Amino acid sequence: MQDFGDAFALAFGLVLNPTSDLLEIVGLSLRVSLSACLLSCLIGLPLGALLAVTRFRGRGAVLVLLNALMGLPPVVVGLLVYLALSRAGPLGFLGLLYTPTAMILAQAVLITPIVAALSRQVLEGLNDEYADQFRSLCLTRWQSMAALIRDGRTALVTVALAGFGRAVAEVGAVMIVGGNIDHLTRVMTTAIALETSKGELARALALGIVLMVIALAVNAAVQGLRTRTEAEAAHA
Fold first, then answer.
1. Domain span at residue 123?
2. 144, 218 in Cβ contact below 8 A?
3. All residues at 6 or more sequence positions from 86 whose CB lies less than 8 Å from its CB, including other chains
4. Residue 82: what pLDDT?
5. Secondary structure letter of residue 217 according to DSSP
6. In this structure, what CATH number is given to the domain that contains residue 33?
7. Residue 123 maps to a domain
8. Share of the chain residues as helix, strand and coil, in percent rounded to the nearest 5
9. What's the pLDDT tens digit per position in 165-198?
10. Which of 81-95, 132-146, 180-194 is predicted least confidently?
11. Is 16 contained in some domain?
12. CA torsion sign, 17 to 193 to 161 to 108?
């Protein structure tokens, strides 16, 4: 028990007085996950809006597939991205394997279905509410999509935060495509796995504490935005 107590004491000491290596790992984690979240939103939000306003044969099957992709196993995503970026893969000429860019791509592939599916749910409800008004104004499909995204921006921020929370906690995919290389592709989750395997519990706990704080902050932000949205809807 004393060993665990010492490990926690050292971990909190590292959090309060972080080393340059610790700050580098945390900074890279945030940079990779924020970039992946931005990329997934650029793809997922328009896709969700398109599915919200469009009715076509086979739409149900597309929605089932999209919802199924929300549960993609991270190691499978990592393997697919690895194969695509490997020297023999179709994108091997880019030389992106074992770089932060490869990690961004893996996280983006993982969370884009989440962003698209959740934004579709949010925007479809708004579309049902505004459908008659859109028809009376003779808006095109793209104008309707833009109006929905603009009006539902607060709820869509919660979708983006959910995607970021999923990305920053990812370990399997980024380990495969990034390689966990010191000072290059080592992020919080992969560093925690490595330090634990080495028996460096204090360092692993310090990174775990930072990761938990980020996760709690994201969840608090999501809850705050939801409460604000519900309050605005109640007063509308």
1. 27-235
2. no
3. 92, 97
4. 96
5. H
6. 1.10.3720.10
7. yes
8. 80, 0, 20
9. 899 989 999 999 999 999 899 999 999 999 888 8
10. 132-146
11. no
12. positive
The DSSP call for residue 92 is: G
pLDDT, mean over the chain: 88
Q: How many distinct structural domains can be found in the chain?
A: 1
Distance (Å) of CA 41 to CA 94, 153, 214: 24, 12, 20
* pLDDT at position 62: 92
The set of long-range contacts for 198-204, using a CB threshold of 8 Å and a minimum separation of 24, is 201/3, 201/4, 201/7, 201/11, 202/6, 202/7, 202/8, 202/10, 202/11, 202/14, 203/11, 203/14, 203/22, 204/11
In a domain, 187, yes or no: yes
Q: Encode 65-78: b = buried (16+ Cβ within 10 Å), e = exposed.
A: ebeebbebebeebb
CA distances from 236 to 118, 223, 230, 231 (A): 23, 20, 10, 9
- Side-chain half-sphere of 170: how many Cα atoms within 13 Å? 37
Asked if 38 and 230 touch (Cβ cutoff 8 Å), the reply is no
Residue 47 lies in a domain: yes
pLDDT at res. 234: 66
pLDDT at 235 over 70: no
**Tokens 């962003």 belong to which residue?**
115
Given a cut of 90, is residue 220 above it in pLDDT? no
